[in-house]
Fold:
Amino acid sequence: MRLNLRTIWKMIRELSGDDAYERYLKNFHKLHAHDEQHACDTPLSKAEFFKQWQDEKWQGIKRCC
Amino acid sequence: MDKTLKAGLWVLIAIIGAAAVGGIAINRGENINALWFIVAALCIYSIAYRFYAAWIAATVLAVDSTRATPAERLDNGRDFIPTHKWIVFGHHFAAIAGPGPLVGPTLAAQFGYLPGTLWILFGAVLGGCVQDMVTLFLSTRRDAKSLGQMAKDELGPLGGTAALIATFSIMIILIAVLGLIVVNAMKHSPWATFTVSATIPIAMIVGIYMRYLRPGQVLEASALGVTLLLMSVVGGRFVAEHETLRLLFDHEGLMLAWSIMAYGLTAAILPVWLLLAPRDYLSTYMKIGTITLLAIAIIFIQPNIKMPALTQFIDGSGPVFGGKLFPFVFITIACGAISGFHSLISSGTTPKLLSNERDICMIGYGGMLLESFVAIMAMIAATVLDPGVYFAINSSAGAVGSIALDAVTKITAWGYPVTVEQMQSLATKMGETTLFARTGGAPSLAVGMASILGKAFGDHLLALWYHFAIMFEAIFILTTLDAGTRVGRFMLQDMLGNIWPKMAETSWTPSVILTSSMVVSGWGYFLYIGVIDPNGGVNILWPLFGIANQMLAAIALSIGTGILVKSGKLKYAGITALPLAWLVTITSTAAWQKITSPDIRIGFFSAANDLAEKLASGMLPPAKASIAPQLIFNLHLDAWITLFFVSLLWLIIIDMLRVCWRSITGKPVLPLTESNHIPSSLVDDWVRD
Structure:
C-alpha cells in the first residue's frame, strides 16, 4: 500500500511537471558524464530551467476542444 | 488464465454488452437507469479495445516494439523525452478532452437519449479511436511530424494547405461558439460572472507563484490555485446576495461578449507564464477531478433517465437546433464520437513522449475511449433532467417566446410538461434568477450535474454545485479560448511572414498586436452576431463547428487511407476509409441542407430571404428590424463558409483518391516518408516503470 501511494505520488508529480527539473538534472548528468569537453558546462538553475521549460511547452497546439 | 475461461469471460462481456445496448434501444417506458448506459459503454469499449484495436495494432499497422521511437532517437531531455505510458496517457487525455464532449451530447439530447448515445459509442470505437490511433502511429513513424506536414509529404501540397486552412477555420468558429456558451452561462448571473472573472486573477497569482516566488513548484502553486477557485465559487454567493456588489457583476450578453473579446486579446498578448500556463494547470485538475467525481456520483446514485429514447424532434423541428436526426446528430456530436482536432494532438505532440510503439493502442485508442465515456456522462447529465426542464433551459426565446408563460405552454404542448413555478423553484435552488433560454448546453449540463452531485453529496448544496459546474466548464472553455487565439496568432504570423518576413517574428510587438487583433476580430464577429441573434446563435454556430471539425477528421483519415494504400495495405484500408466515407456523407448532406433547405430553421439562404422579406414588408418589430441587416449578412456569410468547407473537403478526398489510384495502378507517387528502422536500446524497466 505504501509503495502504491508512492508510485501514485510520483506519477502525479511527473504528470504535472513538478519534478521536471529533477528529471532535467538527471538527464544532464547522464549526457555529460562521459564527455570531458562539456565538463565546464553547468546545468541551468531551477528558475532558469523552469522559464525555458514553460515557454517551450506552449509552442503550438496543445489543447483541443 | 485458462484459455477457455478467458474466452468464456469475453463471451459473457459480449452478452452483457448486447443486453445493455438492447435494453437502451428497445426500452420505451419512462424509466431506464443510467447504469445501463455505463454498462453498455464499458462492455463495448472493452470488446472494441481487446479485439478491434489489438487487431489494427498488430495486423494493420504492425507496431514494432523493437523499433526506437522518435522520443528515444531524438531524446533531448526537453520536448522529446521517452516517458512512462501512463504519464503519456495522462498528457494525451488532458490535451484532447475539452468542452466539446460535454456540449455536443447536451444539445443532441433534443432527439432523445438513444441516437446520441449510439453514435457516441459506435462512432468512437469505429471512427474516432481509429483516427487518433492511426494518426499517432503515422506521426510516430515520421519523427513526430505534424498532421499538416504529413499531408504535404504524403499526399501533396494541396493536402498540406487544406489542413492549415481547416485548422485555422475550426479555431475561429470553435472559439466563437465557446465564447457564446460562456456568455449565456453568465448573462444576468452575478454569481457565475463573479466566479468566472475570479479565475483570471487566480491564474495570475498561480503564474507569479510558479515563476518567481517558488520557481518550478508546480504542485504547491496548483494546490493554492484550486483552493482559491473553490473559494471563488463560495464567494460568488456572497456577491450575488450583496445589494451593491451584485450590480457590478450583473450584465447583458453584449457587454459580456465585449469583455470576453478584450480578455482574449489580452491573453494572447500576455506572456504564457502569467495567464495561459497556470490557467491550463487549474483547468486540467478541475476537469479530471470533476469528471471522476461525476462518474462516482452516477454509479453511486444510479439516476433514472427521464428523457424518452426518441422525441418528435427527429423530424427536424427541434427547438434547440433545427435539422433532422440524419445528418445533424452526427454533426452535433463531433468530439466524443470522432473529432478531427484530436489528430493535431496525436501528431506532433504526443509522439514526442512515446517510449514504445506497442503503447500506441492504449494511448491513441484508449485515450479516445475515455473521451467517449465523458460524452456518455454528459448525455446522462442532460437526460436525467425532466424533459420539460431540459427544453425550457435550452430553447431560445426565438423558438419558444421570451415570456415564461408562453414558453412553458408551448413546451407542455409538445408533451413535456413543465410549469413556471417549477422553473422558478429550480432557479432559486440553483441560486439563479432565471433558467429560461440559457442556451448553449452549459447551464443545462450544470443543472444536471448539480442534481446528480447534489443527490450523492448533499442536496442543500445545490446552488454551490451548480456554480461549481459552471466554473468548471468556463475555466477550460476560457483556456481553449486563449490557447486557440494564441495558436491562431502564430499561424497567421507564419502566413503573413511569407509576404513580409518581419511579421513572422513571434516576439515583434507590432506583429503580435496586429495578428492577435485579427484573430480576435475573426471569432469576435461570430460571437457578437451570436449574442444579438434572438435565436441564440448556438443553433447556427455549433453545426458550423461540427462541419469544420469533421472536415479536419476527414483530412486525418484521408492521410491514413492514402498511406495505408501506398504501403500496399489496400485490403486493410477500410479501417480508415469506411469512417471517412461516413464522415463525407454526413458532412456533405449537412452542408447541402444548410445551404439549400427551404426550411428557414435549417437553410441559411432561406432564412436570409425570409428575414429580408419580413424587413421589406415592415413586419419586424423595431428592435429586430435594426439588427436584421446584420443577421441577413451573417446568414449569407455562413452559407458561403459552409460551401467553402465542403468544397475543400471534396478537394482533399479527390486528391487522396488520385494518390491511391496512382499507387494501385503502379504509377509513381510521392515516396513514403517513414523513418528508418533503428532498434530500440531502451531497457524496458528503466523507462516503463
